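Hi R.,

Here's the input for the (S)-3-Hydroxyhexanoyl-CoA complex you asked about:
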Amino acid sequence: MSSPVNYTLTGNIGVIRVDNPPVNALSHAVREGLLDAFETAAGDASEALLLICEGRTFIAGADISEFGQPPREPFLPDLCDRMEVSAKLFVAAIHGTALGGGFEVALSADYRCASPSARVGLPEVKLGLLPGAGGTQRTPRLAGVEAALQLMTSGAPIAAPMAGETGLVDEIIDGDLLEGALDYVRKLLADGAPQRRTSALAVPEHDPAIFDRFRATLAGKARGQVAPQAIVDCVEKAAATPYEDGAAYERQRFTELMNGGQSKALRHFFFAERAAAKIDDLPKDVAVRPVDSVAVIGGGTMGGGIAMTFANAGIPVTLVEIDDDALERGLAIIDGNYAGSVKRGKLSEDKAAACRALITGATDYAQLADVDLVIEAVFEDPNLKKEIFAKLDAVCKDGAILATNTSYQDVNAIAAATGRPQDVLGLHFFSPAHIMKLLEVVRGAATADDVLATCMQLAKRIRKVPVVAGVCYGFIGNRMLQPYAAQTQLLLLEGATPEQVDTAMEDFGMAMGPLRVFDLAGLDVGYKARQSLSDEQKGDPGSYRVPDQLVEAGRLGQKSGSGFYSYDENRRPTPDPEVHRIIEAAAADLGVERRTVSDDEIVDRLVGALVDEGRKIVDEGIAQRASDIDVVYVYGYGFPAFRGGPMFYADNQGTA
Ligand code: 3H9
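And here is the predicted structure with (S)-3-Hydroxyhexanoyl-CoA in place:
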C-alpha cells in the first residue's frame, strides 16, 4: 500500500506532502511516513524542509478512531521531538484547519506560514483530553501563558492572522500556498534565518496568579470536567520546569485522561454527532434541491430566531405575520436580538447589519410564490397549522419544501392538508433558535428522499446539528421529556425539594435542573396542554398535581416572579417555603408518605426515565440509533457531553 506521506526535492527544499483524506489525521501510516521523510531528508541534499498537506486541510489531529486501541510506534510526542531536532530548517505550511496533534506537529517546526483563511487550534479538551504531543509545553513558549491557556481550555480554533499576532504563526501567505511557502523558505535560507526550537524557548513573563484565576473560572464554566483543569496544571508545569520534565508530566496527565470515563464519553459523542448526519436507508446519490431563499411563518420568539439562523448563514428570509402590527413586533424582537449580539461582542456591527438586511417582512402569502423553503412557526394549534399548509400548497411553487417547526403535532396530518405530502417534513428548532445547535428533522410517512437529504445538508449550512426523527408525539427530545418531568414531580411528592432535585442534576452535569427549566419555560404551557387531555391521557395525578396547583395560585414560573422558586428582579431563584407547603399538602392528599430521598436516587430515576423512553424510541424506529438520542439530549436539553448522552451513560452503568 502506498504511503500517505510523499517526499520530493524541489531544488534545495525537501517537500513533505501528507495526503490522508478526509482530514489528514495522524494515523499510524502517516506517523510512519513522516518519520521516514525526516530520515530520508537527513541524508539528502535538501537545505530546508517544507511540510504541506493535500486536500481540504492541514493535519486535523491525531486519528481519533485509533484511540482506545493498543498504541503503535512511532508515537506522536516522540515524532514531534524528532522533527524538532531536524538539522535542517523546518517550515510548516498551513491551510484549512491545523488542529490538535496536527498543530502540535506544526509547533515542532522552526517556522509556520499559513493561508489567511486557515485556522489553528488545540481542541483536545472537547474530547476530554489535553494536547498530548508537547502542545501544553510549546504553546505557552510561543504565545505566552494566557493565550495558551485560552486556546487550550476553550478548544476553539483561531484564525491564522490572529495566530500571527500571538506568535503562533510567522507568515501569512496570500495566493497559492505551495508557491508562497517555497518562496518563504527560500527567503529564510537567504536571510540566514536561525533554526528555532520551540521547546528551547523560555516561557514569557506572566502573573503567577493567572493559573488559579483560570482554575476558578473553569470550575464554573466547565463544571465537573477534568481535562480543562489538567491543562492548567500542565501549562503551570511548563512555566516552572525544563521542557523535558514538563513533557513527561503532560504525557502522564494525557494518559490518565485518555483512560478516564470523560474522554471515552466525549469520543463517543464526537462520532455520535457525525453518525447522526447519516440516514441509513437514503441512497447516497440523491440530488438535493437548491435552497436560496426561505420564508418563516410566524414572527414570535421561535420564528424570529429561525429567521436569524438563516440570515446569519447568508440566506435571505421573508418573515410572514398576520398584519403589520404583528410584523413590526416580530422584526423589533429580531432587531433587539442583533443589538444584544453586538453588545456581547458575538457579532460585529457590520456583520449584524448585513445579516439583518437579509430579513424582510410580508403579510401576504402571495409573496411566497418563489421561495425554496417555508418554515411554519406559529403556536401549537393543529387546525391553524393545517390551514396554513393548505394556503402554502395553493401559493408555493412546485418543488418548494414545506416544513413545520411543531414540537409535538402529527407531521403526517399536517402534510395531508396539502396535495404534496412528499414535500412536507418537520424542522424542529430549539429555543433560542439562533443559538441552540440541535435540529430535529422529522421525516413524515411521505417525505421524499431528496427533501430529507436537502434538509440534512442545509442544517450543516446553517450550522445546526441535524438528527432525524420519525413521527410520534414529541418526536425524540420532547417525548423523553415527559417521563423525565413526571419522575421529577414524583420525587418531590416522595420527599425531595425542588432545590435538592435541581442541585443533584446540576452536580451530575445538567446545564440546568429540571424545575428551573420548567420555571423558565413557563408552567402555564403544560397546564394549558393538560386541559385538553382525559384523565387517562394525563397519567398518574402525582405527576402533575403540584404544577397544576402552582399555576392555579398564579405561579407561572420566571415570568410571573414565582413558580417552583421565587425570583428577584434579576430572575435569580430562591427556595420558597410556600412551594414546600404545597408539595407536602399534595403528598398528604395523594396518600404519599414522604421520606429522605438521596441525590443518587434523584439522578438514577431521572436519567433512568430518559433512558427507558429512549430505548422505546429506538425500538420503534423513531430514532435511527441510540447515539442519535445522545446527540439530541446534549445539544437540545443540556445533558453533559462529558457523560456521552443518556444512552451512552446507561450503557456504561452495567446491566443492572
Ligand atoms: C489529538 O490530536 C491528540 C493529540 O494532542 C495527542 C496525541 C498523542 N480522527 O467533522 P467532519 C472524520 S486529538 C479521525 O464531518 P468537517 C470524521 O469522523 C484530535 N477521524 O468534517 C468524519 O468521518 P465520516 C484533535 C476524523 O469538514 C470525517 O473525518 N483534533 C478526525 O465538518 C469528516 O469530518 C480534533 O479534535 C480525526 N481527528 O470538519 C479535530 N477528524 O465522514 C476533529 C475528522 O466517516 N475534527 N474525522 O463521518 C474536526 O474538528 C472536524 O472534523 C474538522 C473538519 C474541522 C477537521
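One thing worth noting: Residues 13 and 48 are 5 Å apart (CA to CA).

Cheers,
M.
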